[in-house]
Design brief:
The protein has helices at 16-27, 41-55, 76-80, 94-107, 123-126, 161-173, 190-206, 212-230, 233-239, 244-255, 271-285, 290-310, 315-327, 362-379, 384-388, 461-474; strands at 8-12, 31-35, 70-72, 85-88, 113-116, 136-140, 150-154, 177-180, 342-348, 391-402, 411-422, 425-434, 437-450, 455-456. The chain is of the alpha/beta class and 500 residues long. The strands form two sheets. It has an eight-stranded mixed beta sheet with strand order 3-2-1-4-5-6-7-8, with helices on both faces. Strands 9, 10, 11, 12, 13 and 14 form a six-stranded antiparallel beta sheet that branches. Helix 1 packs across helix 2 and helix 12 (290-310) crosses helix 13. Bound molecules: nicotinamide-adenine-dinucleotide. The site of nicotinamide-adenine-dinucleotide (NAD) has 23 residues, from helix 1. It is an enzyme of class 1 (oxidoreductase). Its EC number is 1.1.1.108. This is Carnitine 3-dehydrogenase. InterPro entries: 3-OHacyl-CoA_DH_NAD-bd, 3HC_DH_C, 6-PGluconate_DH-like_C_sf, 6PGD_dom2, HotDog_dom_sf, NAD(P)-bd_dom_sf.
């Protein structure tokens, strides 16, 4: 676990972005204190938290720390006192932000980091006239903050190396990717890029070249997919083949001077253009409420991020690194008690594991149980290194029982009992729990295999010894209910009526 519940953050301004920060930090186990002048802020944030609970924890294949407490404070001083990170997310008005920093700095410790979510202001502008300018930095996130890892960080000369290091590790602790800008600039990096695309899109509508839905299609069916995984420069490098980047630049340099780029002009926002764009957008997306669109966006983002995770690439690589950090070093068999089934899994159900019935779909049970089998085998010594040397276990038979529903975001744990270890065969029984509720079981017959001949072969003596040790200890445990059951045979278990 990375963060104990003892770490405390404060969020000042709990709108779209402040709510997203609160969700990310609370789901990473921090206490979060929120100050917002609007009395409706708590209900808005609860809606964001509910969306985040379904989507965010399932990004990782290990359990996150227990969710931290979220509290609301009418008094700003009360909210920020003692917080180690204070994230200002009030509307984009310089005077308002400066007023808030004065109040925050009168209450917070000198060691606290004050991050601003500002999309446009530079830290030197924000910190002008502040009591301790080096304490105020830009920490610019992206909506939804609880899913998108990027945080652009802009520091100033007074920030100091120690604070920079703390900013880096703290953002890493909450699963974010801090991108430190080399120097301050209006609107940072990402929004500069987005503004350029946005301006060109407005021109295309204004000139009647394309409608809003067509522009969105041009992005999401094409280069947007490329951008999500490799960005701009790496994608262009490939597109140009072995001719390389120098060649690409010599060609695009000429093209960029062509008449088809209007990037520096902005179309006049006439009433007519506003009506055109708003009307096209209503026709494109108006049949769905924004909350529904946000849920669709979250589910799509989870699918993309988990896809990249399986590829260990880009943002997916960050998720894998966070898995390793949160999961910590795996506990060895010698350090574990063998008087109970072995803990072999703890995770949240990812959003993309849900089916049309609104609960975890069949093959994902098998995936979770398969991961638990891998974990069990690694514990007894059949780990990646062992397999690379030419031997492994294959699964010969499986029986999964679905006893109760689990939904996206649900926290599941798995334990494993070894029922038999005899020669080449091992029979294991997994139980999946959501809290104290048994939701599924899986029984597997595993066969030890020589990977060269692809035939069953006896395990080496050290592996046999470890399996034997677990089998001997587990022989004292009661036989699990449902072990050895055939498909369709009724089992006297109260969860059976709830079975899928
Ligand atoms: N919306 C985005 O996509 C996005 C993305 C990145 C960064 N940002 C930046 O984040 C900041 C917040 O933007 P947002 O979109 O969340 O705005 P928002 O309007 O949704 O939220 C602002 C919140 O601040 C509260 N507030 C107003 N005055 C306050 C005060 N004096 N004290 C405490 N709370 C106060 C409001 O009640 C509201 O809940 C802005 O600086 C914006 O540039 C926005």
């Amino acid at each position: 676990m990375v963060a104990s519940g003892a770490r405390t953050a404060a969020v000042v301004g709990g709108g779209v972005i402040g709510g997203g920060w609160a969700a990310r930090v609370a789901l990473m186990g921090w206490k979060v204190r929120i100050h917002d002048t609007d009395k409706d802020a708590p209900s808005r944030i609860e809606a964001v938290m509910a969306r985040a609970r379904a989507a965010m924890p399932g990004l990782w294949d290990v359990a996150l720390p227990e969710e931290g407490e979220v509290s609301f404070h009418d008094d700003l001083t009360e909210a920020v006192t003692g917080a180690e990170w204070i994230q200002e997310s009030v509307p984009e008005r310089l005077d308002l932000k400066r007023e808030i920093y004065a109040e925050i700095q009168a209450a917070c410790t000198e060691g606290a980091i004050i991050g601003s979510s500002t999309s446009g202001f530079r830290p030197s502008e924000l910190a002008e006239g502040a009591a301790r300018p080096g304490q105020i930095i830009v920490a610019h996130p992206f909506d939804p903050v609880y899913l998108l890892p990027l945080v652009e960080v802009v520091t100033g000369p007074g920030t100091g190396d120690a604070r920079i290091e703390r900013i880096r590790t703290t953002l890493r602790d909450i699963g974010s990717h801090p991108l430190f800008l080399r120097r301050e600039i209006d609107a940072h990096v990402a929004d500069r890029l987005l503004e350029a695309v946005w301006r060109e899109a407005l021109w295309l509508v204004s000139d009647g070249v394309a409608e809003t839905a067509e522009i969105d299609d041009a992005i999401r069916y094409g280069f947007g997919l490329r951008w999500a995984q490799m960005g701009l420069f790496e994608s262009y490098r490939i597109a140009n083949g072995e001719a390389g980047m120098r060649q690409a630049l010599s060609q695009s340099g000429v093209a960029l001077k062509g008449p088809w780029s209007k990037l520096t002009d902005v179309p006049e926002m006439t009433e007519e253009l506003v009506e055109t764009i708003a009307g096209q957008s209503d026709a494109q997306s108006g049949r769905r409420p924004v909350e529904e669109l946000a849920q669709i966006r979250d589910a799509n983002l989870v699918a993309v991020l988990r896809g990249l995770k399986a590829r260990d690439w880009g943002a997916g690589r960050l998720l894998n690194a966070t898995d390793r950090r949160i999961g910590g070093a795996p506990q060895g068999l010698d350090a574990m008690s063998l008087t109970a089934p072995l803990p072999t899994g703890a995770r949240a159900v990812p959003l993309d594991w849900s089916d049309h019935n609104g609960h975890m779909t069949e093959h994902r049970y098998l995936q979770a149980f398969g991961d638990a089998t891998d974990r069990f085998l690694a514990l007894v010594g059949c780990d990646a290194e062992y397999i690379a040397c030419g031997q492994s276990f294959f699964t010969a038979e499986t029986h999964v029982r679905h006893l109760a529903e689990v939904r996206a975001g649900g926290q599941i744990t798995i334990d494993t009992q070894l029922l038999l270890a005899e020669g080449r065969r091992a029979r294991i029984f997994h139980r999946m729990w959501e809290s104290s509720r048994l939701v599924a079981t899986a029984e597997h017959m595993l066969v030890h295999v020589d990977l060269q001949s692809r035939r069953a072969a006896a395990p080496p003596s050290d592996l046999q010894e470890r399996l034997g040790r677990v089998a001997k200890a587990h022989a004292h445990l009661p036989a699990p209910e449902g072990a050895g059951a055939a498909v369709g045979r009724p089992i006297a278990h109260k969860g059976a009526e709830e079975a899928k």
